[in-house]
Structure prediction request, 411 residues.
Amino acid sequence: MTDDLVPRRAPRTLRAPWADRLEEAATELADGIVRREREGAAPHDAFAALRSRGLIGLTVPAELGGEGASLADAAAAARRLARVDGGLAHAVGYHWVWLWFVAAYGAHGSEGATPTAPARELARRTAADGLVWASIGSAFGGSGGTVRSGDGYAVSARRGFATGAPVADLLFTQSVLAEDGRMRIWAIPTDREGVTVASDWDPVGQRLSASPGVVLEDVRVTDDDLVAVANPPSEHPIPLQSLMIPAFQSLFGWLAVGIAEGALLEARDYVRTQGRPWVHSQAESAAEDTHVLAGFGRQVAAVSAAAALVREGAIELDALAAHPTSVTRAQRGELAEVIAAGKIAAHHAGLEAASAVFDLTGARSASASFGLDRHWRNLRTLTLHDPVAHKHEELGRYFLSGDLPIPSVYR
Prediction:
């Protein structure tokens, strides 16, 4: 899998035993993507293509039957899929990142406690059976919580944007236990009584991310479903927990880069095979038109620069993730701002590139049959996840005053 847009004599490639299988899956998924994206059905077939190649357990450690991919490699894999299908890449990227944390809690425990046996077993089962995880996020702030019920607990929540829920076997959710204010991280089977997955996902883009709302109504859980105990949102996260949001922010940067690259690569193919020089152009082909050449050069440079920033954050994330129980507040805060810079760059470069491709390909490329518009729609929807204006302010504050960001569900 070649990483970069700019051709090299020695291309930067993802060197992993599973990279060829991922490339096969991406090639298969490219066939029919315009039709599937238009229909917007839950991506069962796409996940089946990944499952058949043993890629569902990508971030499960090898000793538990997975591929042992790092957070950075998993995000790079999502980037490759995003070039074809931004929605699927979003859903499976979430799955891979959550699964890394499930396995990490199984290995390291939480709050310095004994490693969580259920988490370790869940990671092993995920790799063996090809289970898919989705997240309903955190249940707090008026959206429910957890109370004791008999010899277990009852979890209630009403959340939107549960990415991957319609195709998932398990939901990864966080809820605060009323009696002690601590946050529990649960693995809840989607077929458990009280779980309702809505059918309200109808966005302009990221349609194949399958991100509807989910309602949990007094869903019964026990300690066998417990992945970890963590600090509530009002407190500073414990070391391993503190990496969770930077990991997802890093993923968002790679998704934006991948979608933008997909737009440029498809536009390049269009210009090479179907492009026509403009009537006032002196060029014999669209690929020789100086305006087209300059336009592609500008967009490739901007997206490549964003990719370099996102890659820097991913490398630093992996370095901290190698020792997840000893992360300091300063390390975590500095990492968050490196990742924020990459995400900001990917946001702006990606949106510009996904729009500019139409100037470079011409009027006929606007036909719905080519599906070039899906890249801009996917990026426009993805970049609304958390407002980039607040990322600007966060990074500017860090630059001017050195203030580390206060951890939240978005930073």
